[in-house]
Amino acid sequence: MLKKRNKILFAPLKIRYLCQKFMKMATKRLRAYQDVLHREPKHIDYNGKLSDLFGQNVFHQDIMREYLPSDTYKFMTEAIQNGTRLDRKYADQVASAMKDWAISKGATHYTHWFQPLTGTTAEKHDAFLKPIGPGKAIERFDGDMLVQQEPDASSFPNGGIRNTFEARGYTAWDPSSPAFVIGKTLCIPTIFISYTGESLDYKMPLLKALHAVDQAAVEVCQYFDKNVTKVNATLGWEQEYFLIDSALFNARPDLMLTGRALFGHAPAKGQQLEDHYFGSIPERVNAFMREFEVESLLLGIPVTTRHNEVAPNQFECAPIFEECNLANDHNLLLMDLMEKIARKHNFRVLLHEKPFAGVNGSGKHNNWSLSTNTGVNLLAPGKNPKSNLQFLTFFVNTIMAIHENADLLRAAIASAGNDHRLGANEAPPAIISAFIGTQLSQLLDDLEKNIKAGKMTPQDKTELKLNIGKIPQILLDNTDRNRTSPFAFTGNKFEFRAVGSSANCGSAMIVLNTIMAKQLRIFKAAVDKRIEKGETKDEAILKELQVLIKASKKIRFEGNGYGDEWVKEAEKRGLSNLKDTPRALKVWHNKDVAKLFSEMEVLTPRELEARAEIEFENYILKIQIESRLMGDLVQNNFIPAAVEYQNKLIQNVQGLISVLGDKAGRAAAKAQIELLEKVSLHINKMKEASDTMLAQRKIANKIESAEQKALAYCDQVKVHFDEIRYHADKLELLVEDELWPLPKFRELLFIR
To answer: In this predicted model, what pLDDT tens digit does every residue of 379-402 receive, in sequence order?
Structure first.
């Protein structure tokens, strides 16, 4: 009877104990785990042809032909081809047509869709609605609304270009990038400028860089084909990303606030077996891919490729290449789509370059080339000596542009996230080099050696032409070293592999097209000078190519870019190894760089300086957020969990001693005591490093100069991250699994 009474009496206490235990067992983590176990794929059924979907929600030229008067359509076609601004006299007609089409697609609002210097896109929605009297309204959208808007721009990065009281930014439609409907909103791609006309985005300088390379390339093409009147830069990007279940994502404050896991011990199994890469696409992921691909096609994004990547829960998608400006818009749109659609499938997309230590990071390889209005890819070998000489001209000039502006290319892809990826034995090193393959390397070496000084004989020219004519149309290299190079030639294009997965491709493309335009100008001037001195056109081109081949030789590297040997060799060659963003960004201050962008009419010195300041500030803020969060997690998550585990161990040790006596109890509790000592050591070391980091951050915050502040955050604050993480990750292995507060890597990477 007494036993039964005690059972009843203590029942509430037992329930309370179990509840408390559950609360202590990392509630968020366990709830997240339970949520994931009940996920079902959300199948998206579409049985029609994908080609029928393509461009349905885009205001493209076929739609314009249907909705616009013939003279307006003709003007729009010319504006798209030539990149000219929309004439105001046609604006109302275009706006009316665009409104009618958008409403037919279900749109109720419109927005200017632009690319501020945040790295993402921005929009402000306005309704088509206009009241015209009591209880009456009409759908209104006129030319003024289409051509220009004045969004509140005070919160966007400006680098000191705008004063606070003049914090205005203006958006203006870019007709070369078609409007589109997404959801219920008509989106109009625009440039973003200050009230003084200075660029505040990526699109405007990109358009200027594309115009510059177009002009310079056409002039060089005229040596080979007088019918060439336009050259387009083309871009094909490859978007790598991680997918994490939304419940697990929400249980990780570091993923939520920084996009990467600041802590986490490597799981027993990572990517060693590469079974994820070669395996089938997980069912839930496939459903997500199918939906975002359908939505992409509706918006005219030609996504054709999807597959697993090497790391667990890492994937990739890629489109067919397009004109560079349009391709960049499509990449930014796709990143936005992926995030929205992922949420519908209970996923979150991680675009950080290195979200998980110990496994592959994510890049965004930019495949770049030049193509003419006559349908020729200028970086593809031809079928005869003439076409191959044209190929060699643009090929060698590209290598020379990389050689002369390697530090500038490094600056273009610099970011806090990319610093973790570059040089991590899964991505290209921070040293900029060009891989071209053994065949082409041998050809360039032969050209350098065989082009004779002075006047060339007909026999010399014939022999060279024969050798040039032998260049195969498809150049295959028997090594995989191109994957270890930041800038690799892949048969008919250059692949800028060092670009980070979260980056706006515009940053890299602005630099690449600008330096190419400059180099082609220099080449054209040098060749013309030789011709004026009496050399034939072909002889002048060949001899100038010889000069460039010799001058750019040190940038070419065919070996393993991941090895330490390359670091030493690069140093011998005098190549820069800018391992962190603050030092990479210093190049923006160079007078030669300012002169280059000013001369090519891409960026003014003031715009360039503003961008440098914004990049430094962006780096500071990202490292600052990470350091704050690290301190928070250490103090409020890891130490309490470790102390709770210590208390359990202490209770166990005390219990053994009380039952067995001091000596026997201590002997029996040897393992527990050792665990206690290890846990205490890591707690103390972790707390000390965290406090030191906090003290250094306070010092860094007092620095006025953005550049010096960024360097301080890099050299004095960030340097403590690894030590803090080391001790936290050791605690993760020591502390009872049920008590650890954050989802572990094995859960994040292998639960799908």
So the answer is: 999 888 899 999 999 999 999 999
pLDDT digits (tens, 9 = 90+) for 340-378: 999 999 999 999 999 999 999 999 999 999 999 999 999
Taking CA 420 as the corner, what is the angle to CA 332 and CA 552, rounded to the nearest 5 degrees? 80
Cβ partners under 8 Å of residue 493, min gap 6 = 234, 236, 321, 367, 368, 369, 377, 379
Q: Which residues of the chain have pLDDT under 70?
A: 1-26, 83, 133, 137, 151-154, 162-168, 472-481
Work out whether strand 434-435 and strand 487-489 pair parallel, antiparallel, or are unpaired.
parallel
Do 394 and 533 fall within a single domain?
yes
pLDDT at 90: 86
Q: Are residues 693 and 722 in the same domain?
A: yes
Cα separation, 604 vs 602, whole angstroms: 7
Which pLDDT score, from 0 to 100, does residue 81 have? Answer: 79
- Where helices occur in 361-437 by DSSP H, the ranges are 385-404, 406-412, 416-421
- CATH classification of the domain holding 668: 1.20.120.1560
Angstrom distance (rounded) from CA 666 to CA 653? 7
Contact (Cβ atoms closer than 8 angstroms) between residue 238 and residue 330: no
160 with 230, same domain: the answer is no
- The reported pLDDT for the residue numbered 179 is 94
Which pLDDT score, from 0 to 100, does residue 8 have? 40
Query: What is the DSSP secondary structure assignment for residue 281, as one 8-state letter?
Result: P
380: domain range? 210-603
pLDDT of residue 410: 97
Question: What's the CA gap between 358 and 457, in Å, rounded?
Answer: 59
Give residue 106's Cα distance to chain centre.
32
Does residue 32 lie in a domain region? no
* Count of structural domains, the chain: 3
Q: Is residue 350 part of a domain?
A: yes
193 and 219 inside one domain = no
Q: Where are the beta strands (DSSP E) in 92-175?
A: 109-113, 126-127, 129-133, 136-139, 148-149, 169-173
End residue of a domain, out of 603, 636, 662: 603
The one-letter code for the residue type at 446 is D
**Is residue 68 in a domain?**
yes
pTM over cut 0.85: yes
Residues 419 and 483 in one domain: yes
Q: Clarify whether residues 375 and 491 are in a common domain.
A: yes
Residue among 442, 430, 424 at smallest CA distance from 478: 442
Tell me whether strands 129-133 and 136-139 are parallel, antiparallel or unpaired: antiparallel
> Do 510 and 368 contact (CB within 8 A), yes or no?
no
Q: Are residues 189 and 226 in the same domain?
A: no
How far apart are the C-alpha atoms of 152 and 155, rounded to whole Å?
Answer: 8
Task: Check which CATH number belongs to the domain holding 140 and give it.
Answer: 3.10.20.70
SS3 content of the chain, % helix, strand, coil (to 5): 55, 15, 30
Q: Is 43 domain-assigned?
A: no
What whole-number distance in Å separates Cα of residue 522 and Cα of residue 48? 52
Beta bridge partners of 470: none
The pLDDT tens digits for 288-311 are 999 999 999 999 999 999 899 999
Helix axes 721-734, 670-701, angle to 10 degrees: 160
User: Quick one: angle between helices 203-221 and 385-404, nearest 10?
Assistant: 140
Positive or negative, the Cα torsion across 740, 745, 750, 752?
A: positive
The domain boundary, picked from 178, 198, 218, lies at 198
Residues 657 and 745 in one domain: yes
Residue located via tokens 């008509």: 186
Strands 180-182 and 185-194 turn out to be antiparallel
153-166 per-position pLDDT tens digit: 667 888 878 655 45
pLDDT value at position 2? Answer: 40
Q: Which residues pair with 371 in a beta bridge?
A: 232, 377
Tokens of 246: 């939304």
- Give the list of residues 6+ apart from residue 333 with CB closer than 8 angstroms, or none: 121, 180, 182, 299, 301
CA distance 123 to 110: 9
